[in-house]
Amino acid sequence: MLDLERQYKPLRQELLEALAGVLDSRQFILGGAVADFETAAAAQLGVAHAIGCSSGTDALWLALAAARIGADARVITTPFSFFASVSSILRAGATPVLADIDPVTFNLSPAAVESVLDTLHGASVRAILPVHLYGQVSFGSGREFGLPIIEDAAQAWGAGWQGKRAGGLGDIAAFSFYPTKNLSAAGDAGMVSTNSAELAERARMLRQHGMRRRYFHDELGWNTRMDGFQGAILKVKLKHIEGWNEARRTAAARYQALFTATGVAEPGTYPERGVVLPKEVPGAYHVWHQYVIRAPRRDALRDFLTARQIGSEVYYPVPLHMQDALRHLGYREGDFPEAERAAREVLALPIFPEIREDEQQAVVAAIAEFCS
Ligand SMILES: Cc1ncc(COP(=O)(O)O)c(C=O)c1O
Predict the structure, then answer these.
(1) Least crowded by CB within 10 Å, which of 83, 225, 351, 360?
(2) What is the per-residue DSSP string for 112-161?
């Protein structure tokens, strides 16, 4: 699925020097390396503020808490995402309200959000939390809803929408630098971005136990600080991420051409006998964190690929409203048909900046053989 070795090898020396710099400074938590990364990251995203923290999950919680989303607030989000998109809302003390996805982008459907708002008459809905799943923005800025937008940009470093970057589209955003992400740390790390000085100041305060002054706690924050080592590694990788994202785009275009040439690519939204390829929607700059096809008999196809030593993954096999841990939200199977269908059909294929053409040819040839 992903060969991190190919990214690591050419950077090895530079990364070791960056780590040595942190050891020499002995600033192991936050400190100069994290501050330097935050400055460079904000500049690259075109946002005013970046706040490094300990994971994408914590970044989501920090973003919600900074925006004062707490008890008695409802937050609209998608049932088709990683668990943290919903669990962080609960951890902030608020109630997640789910709306179905668009079957083409797999992202929150604006029409579904509209109908949820109509049903609730807007009551106590305090924010919308769109997820830029697989590296594509399609929800836009969400301004038309007149509610604060909290972006889950965990999979979308460098992704764009109409000339602006994910992380600066809404009011506040969360990124993950989990080691398999486009921009990745060597462990857990995350970041909050915002153009609001007030939200940035609150996020900084909340990531350090609600302290503005040492040992004076203004609010109930938490420890969600970024390690110096992670800041140093991320600063090195930040110089390369735009090139890596371009390489992912080249690889995605190659899959498109290869699948089309074999004749297994189908034009519709759902697969019949062949596979449906992912699409970049107008206005989006997709960074292909994942290349996700829809396939009939998905699990059998996955077994077939595994037998040929071809990696694949299902993001995500169980929609969030059907997770045991979230049963108390009161949803049932059938409530979000698009998310449920996606969970049955999606299959992520190997994609990373250094993937070779012959590797992609082997993936496509195996899928064509399965479908024939
Ligand atoms: C969409 C989404 N949101 C949130 C997260 C949580 O990030 P982390 O694993 O860094 O806590 C992830 C990553 O796993 C993710 O993919």
Answers:
(1) 83
(2) HHHHHHHHHTTTTEEEEE-B-GGG---STT-GGG-S-BEEE-TT-TT-EE
